[in-house]
Specification:
Elements (H helix, E strand, L loop, with lengths): L1 E9 L3 H12 L1 H8 L1 E9 L15 E2 L2 H6 L5 E4 L6 H11 L3 E4 L2 H18 L3 E2 L10 H8 L5 E7 L2 H13 L3 H10 L8 H4 L2 H15 L9 E2 L7 H9 L2 E11 L4 E11 L11 E8 L3 E8 L3 H20 L28 E11 L4 H11 L4 E6 L8 E8 L2 E2 H12 L4 E10 L6
Parallel strand pairs: 1-2, 1-4, 2-3, 4-5, 5-6, 8-10
Antiparallel strand pairs: 7-9, 7-11, 9-10, 11-12, 13-15, 13-16, 13-17, 14-15
Bound molecules: L-homoserine.
Length: 438
Amino acid sequence: MLDPIKVGILGLGTVGGGTAHILQNNAQEIARRAGRGIVITHASAKDINKTHPYSTENMVLTELNDVVNNPDVQIVVELLGGTTIARDLTLQAIANGKHIVTANKALIAKHGNEIFAAAQQKGVTVAFEASVGGGIPIIKAIREGLAANKIKWVAGIINGTSNFILTEMREKGREFNDVLAEAQRLGYAERDPTFDIEGIDAAHKLTILASISFGIPLQFEKIYTEGISKLTSEDIRYAEELGYRIKSLGIAKRTDKGIELRVHPTFVPKKHLLANVEGVMNAVLVQSDMLGQSLYYGAGAGSLPTGSAIVADLVDVVRTLTTDPGNRVPHLAFQADALSNVPILSIDEIESAYYLRMTAVDKVGVLAQVATLLSQNGISIEAIRQQEPTGEGNTVSIVLRTHRVPEKQMNRAIQAIEQLDGITGQVIRIRLETLGRG
Ligand code: HSE
């Protein structure tokens, strides 16, 4: 394999730390996808004399200018935020022929037109997946996955902090300021949190979404923006009573007269998927002419989710520098020579929770026998219910839910249960997945 690509990172805060963590922890998996390793060799942090949790012996902590001017650095990751120093350094890095990966939505929304022109002139890439929707690959989805479509509108919950505040106020009756302080502690909020609560951050992101959806230049200044700071718990309660939830939406819509671009609190029907996007989660609903509606959902802020998008962009850039340009993205996502032979499990070897239904003769002890057979096979029952007798042949239905167990244990138990005198017919089994985190 080729030598690792050298990355310089501007800012080792919440997202920078997440990016370093991912590159270190998933180094092998990332190299299998990218075709070569990716290492941070230069980083600028607030205090370069302090030991940083992710600094390694191969990483030099240095000044901002040293990162963008260092001839060894091939890709600069800009995570400073803001639009002044970040703009200057980004343009400087581009002038030095370096590729850029950024999470800075304000920078792209306000100076993207200028930055992209400079990048095009120098033949370098500017990747900004992390700028919208945190870890959700929404930019890739719209730019590439929906390329066959004319996009009619996009409506998104694209500020995690506002959504977190609205959720906590509605669910727990918490105070606005108290929840905002928590969002700041958790690293969701912008350095200037008025950007979050006044809809400015969402407007930055909507600017980007509108451009990639409709093929228009970035026009942040034209967005109508209204925040959530004037909402009261009363409005939130009344919305609920009327069958709605208040969500701060960014809406970009193509109409016959032009394009609507607006961010504001919005009543959304309570049962709509968007109304059920809670906490710091983001979601973008896209209405396109051929696919119809599609929804993209995931963590919209935070260290690792945003780092995930940064690293995905790094992999994209590295692939263009490394692999066969005709097959920039490997057919199976991993480089052909990096595919692995991890065994595929047979259905006997999978593990699942189960719903079981069986028909039992309504007599003393049958339920106990079923429970005993399950327990002898190491299966723990989570809930059990015997239905009322149906009157047909003195039989009753028994339904139960089990904890997770290897399928082969369940097979043994079912076989034994079906042989009981008190059980008639087959045991019906449906596998149950809670689809929780982890
Ligand atoms: N402050 C932003 C948010 C961070 O709350 O969504 C992610 O862009």
